[in-house]
Amino acid sequence: MKNENLEKSCFKFTEKLLYNYKEMESHIENLEGLKKEIKAEDTIATRAITYDDIKVSPTYKITNAVRDGVIDPVKVVQEIDINIYHEKSLKRKLDKAINNLNPIRKQIIEKRYGEEMGWTEMALELYHDEKTLRKYKNQAVKSIAVELFGSKVFKEEEPNLFDMLAI
Fold first, then answer.
1. Distance (Å, whole) CA 62 – CA 71
2. Beta-carbon neighbour count of residue 43 at 10 Å?
3. Is residue 59 part of a domain?
């Protein structure tokens, strides 16, 4: 994948994340509710019919129906915990990246992606023309993408100042 395509992909992906920012919080809450539901569940879990207990081949696999019934909900809770951790981590990174923007770019991101405000309406409210707002939006999204993916994504093919940085 060429660097230009990678840059566009990261930019578009960052925009999708920003458009879905509000839903991220509700998704985290839903996952936490599901986790509580599974932990608090007092019903007896029944297993589906499997042929693991019947010797079909000489693998000598030893299974215990009770143990398997208990381990499955534990695995589900662990998977939910991992999903919650990843979602919260991504949300934290987005929050940090948005808060690091200068005030006008932060307002543009909040109004464009949070409130889904149009360019004309935003231009009237922020006292800038639409072209300038679009330029600031692109700079802000690129800045957020650098925060999420690192500066190497936006590095050009030719040697430049990025190569001279001692990181």
1. 15
2. 5
3. yes
Between the alpha carbon of residue 12 and those of residues 16, 110, 134, the distances in Å are 6, 17, 15
pLDDT digits (tens, 9 = 90+) for 29-58: 999 998 888 888 754 555 555 555 555 555
Q: What pLDDT score was predicted for residue 94?
A: 92
In a domain, 46, yes or no: yes
Dist CA 88 CA 101 (whole Å): 20
* Distance between start and end Cα atoms, the chain: 25
Which structural domain, as residue segments, surrounds residue 64? 3-156
How far is the C-alpha of 42 from the C-alpha of 73, rounded, in Å? 12
* CB 27 within 8 Å of CB 161: no
Split into its structural domains, the chain has a count of 1
* Of 120, 140, 142, nearest in space to 131 by CA: 120
Domain membership of residue 65 (yes or no) is yes
Please report whether residue 151 resides in a domain. yes
